[in-house]
Design brief:
This protein is α/β, with parallel strands linked by helices. The protein contains seven helices and seven strands, in the order βαββαβααβαβαβα. It binds guanosine-5'-triphosphate and magnesium ion. The site of magnesium ion (MG) has 4 residues, from α1. InterPro entries: P-loop_NTPase, Small_GTP-bd, Small_GTPase.
């Protein structure tokens, strides 16, 4: 099985559920109360996708405004960004253009962004419709998923699709489709970014 390593970044406003999505992806229960992330942390796992072994480095970043410049430092090393907003908090949806602005400034051309509306289990409290989120996603050519970290709904799918999009881009770039056994790297990091990512592991 050929192998690819993918650096995932999970970003979005504070409280949207980034840490919860990561916990859910690892099959863990989410924290019932909001404990804001202050320390950058990364988790590592491997999963099979489309006959490839995906080695995933998933970086959990704080969402508060204060950390925004630090968060931006990580975009150049990311192969996939999961941009999360909260389906029951309009403010987090209205802030998406700002996130996209920061991301687009530094994200490598071959990296991918997936938009995620979290807390789909709280349907009655929803204030962002699927249609308006889809319009935003279409505007920026993003895939859009509604997930529930609390129920573990669609979380794995979002990571799978992000990994698939990265694979497509890598194959497009390297013409690597015929070289199944070749280990491919999902993103070209500068030495500085590589050191930052390494420190997190
Ligand atoms: N009902 C419901 N609550 C959720 C879901 N995901 C997260 N939460 C709750 O939302 C709150 C914030 O979740 P976190 O994962 O800490 O949010 P975060 O985006 O990591 O926040 P920061 O670290 O401050 O940036 C917590 O109280 C979670 O229990 C979900 O899918 N459904
Ligand atoms: Mg967090």
């Amino acid at each position: 099985m050929s192998h690819i390593s993918v650096n995932f970044l999970v970003v979005g406003d504070t409280g949207v559920g980034k840490s919860s999505i990561i916990a859910s992806f690892f099959g863990e229960k989410i924290q019932p109360i909001h404990l804001p992330t202050h320390v950058l942390s990364a988790s590592h796992c491997t999963f099979a996708f489309s006959s490839k072994e995906v080695e995933a480095y998933i970086c959990d970043l704080p969402g508060s405004e204060h950390f925004r410049p630090i968060v931006s430092c990580f975009y150049p090393g990311a192969a996939a960004i999961l941009l999360v907003f909260d389906l029951i908090n309009k403010h987090t949806f209205n802030n998406l253009p700002r996130w996209m602005h920061d991301i687009r400034e530094t994200l490598p051309a071959h990296s991918v962004v997936v938009l995620i509306g979290n807390k789909s289990d709280l349907e009655k409290a929803r204030v962002v419709s699927r249609a308006e989120a889809q319009i935003f996603a279409d505007r920026f050519h993003l895939r859009y998923f509604e997930v529930s970290a609390a129920l573990g709904l669609n979380v794995g799918l979002a990571f799978d699709v992000a990994a698939g999009l990265v694979l497509d881009k890598v194959e497009e770039r390297d013409g690597a489709t015929s070289e199944e056994d070749k280990a491919v790297s999902s993103c070209d990091m500068g030495e500085e970014e590589r050191l930052i990512w390494k420190k997190l592991m």
